[in-house]
Amino acid sequence: MSECLRRRFAIVSRDLTRPGEIPPVEASAYSFINLGKRTILEEVSTVNSLVIYAKQILTPEDDWEDGLVHIQNGKISYVGKQSLDLPPETKVYTGHCLIPGMVDLHINGTAGGDAAEGTHQALEKMSRSLAAHGATAFLPTIITDHEEELVRSLQALSEVLDDQLPGARPLGIHLEGPFINPAQKGAHRADCIQAPSLEIFQKYFKAANGKLRMLTLAPEMKGALELIHEARKELSIVSLGHSNADYRCAVEAIEAGANLATHIFNAMPGLHHREPGLVGAVLDSEDISAEIIADGIHVHPVMVRLLARCKGPDKLVLVTDAISAADMPDGRHRVGNVEVTVEEGVCRNQEGVLAGSSLTMDRGLKNLYDWLNEDDLKRIVAMATIQPAALLGLENKGRIKKDCDADLVLLDEDLQVRKTWIAGELV
Ligand SMILES: [Zn+2]
User: Fold this and answer.
1) Which of 104, 246, 295, 321 is catalytic?
2) How far does residue 322's CA lie from ligand 1's centre (Å)?
3) Any catalytic annotation for residue 321?
4) Is residue 26 a part of any domain in this protein?
5) CA of 203 to the centre of ligand 1 (A)
6) Cα 324 to Cα 330: distance, rounded to the nearest angstrom
7) Residue 228 belongs to what domain range?
8) What is the pTM of this model?
9) Stretch 34-63: mean pLDDT, rounded?
10) The CA-based dihedral angle spanning residues 327, 329, 334, 335, taken in that order and rounded to the nearest 10 degrees
11) Cα-to-centroid distance, 356 and ligand 1 (Å)
12) 169 with 76, same domain?
């Protein structure tokens, strides 16, 4: 037992019971200590100091060569090049490239776990797999389903969202649908699509118990513009997708508060020179960001390059749109209520329509690096870290900066994930 633990126990024993009555406890971040009739939740491990030396640190606002990051009690306490007077129990790590933990705003499932199940087990599978691939935070995403089923999923998911998880942490829920255009449904079930309705949105918002952070809808559907305006009062992100919106309607949606486009280029008409449409409006506007599924299947790398010239790195966000088949062998899987067959990593429903992806964030980062001819890796890292965190209004995530959460990923020369820390804990 560390000196710190002893000190903490001594205080507890003076306050609540006689010396010698305290049962032994495991050293962990939190531990229940039974004291006679009382049970208290006491933080017992207060010293957690580690330092990471890396050849390159991408904050990603800055790029430090041969720098170090010091972490104490789950927070970043120093970033720079000075030699520090470190506490003796400090753990030391070294590596090639340190980046902030990546944040995935659009992920239905991975490693056999499907967010729509709304179970601890599903979230646990996702959490572990995400961390292994360099993501430290995510929005579990639920697609269009019957109204009562969506209510059930949102309720169930909201109840397990704050559970202790082994890896990446959910930051809230992304509801993709059901207020989408049936003509651009993709793999969503047509019979579950609903007309935009403030009343039904409020029902979903209540079911999610305040944990809904993002809604994807089609702005051209009757009542959608009003819903965008109202939903932005409650949500960090209202995103345009599964849509046939023309240019004028897309601009109105951006003016109403839509701040993201869901998997741009997918489930919307392509760019046309006489009718720029939703894609043209998003490429042209500085007031909206765009998600990109960088798996090389959903969007051609040339289109990703064109997109990055218009939007990146400040308004472009890497997402996976992964389903439970990601990080798993090919075969039959599910996303929500949809049966999916996966062959060579490509996910399709029974009609052969693309149904999510098997992409992981580290693979997406590597693809963007290969495709964008970018010498400046920090611009690409921004698309997976600070940009999604900023959309969620989080200043303590997605960046390596003093007082931010110590969510960090160490990459090797090939951008492979070597280590992941969440709140300073190696996972
Ligand atoms: Zn979609």
Assistant:
1) 321
2) 10
3) yes
4) yes
5) 22
6) 11
7) 102-397
8) 0.88
9) 69
10) 30
11) 7
12) no
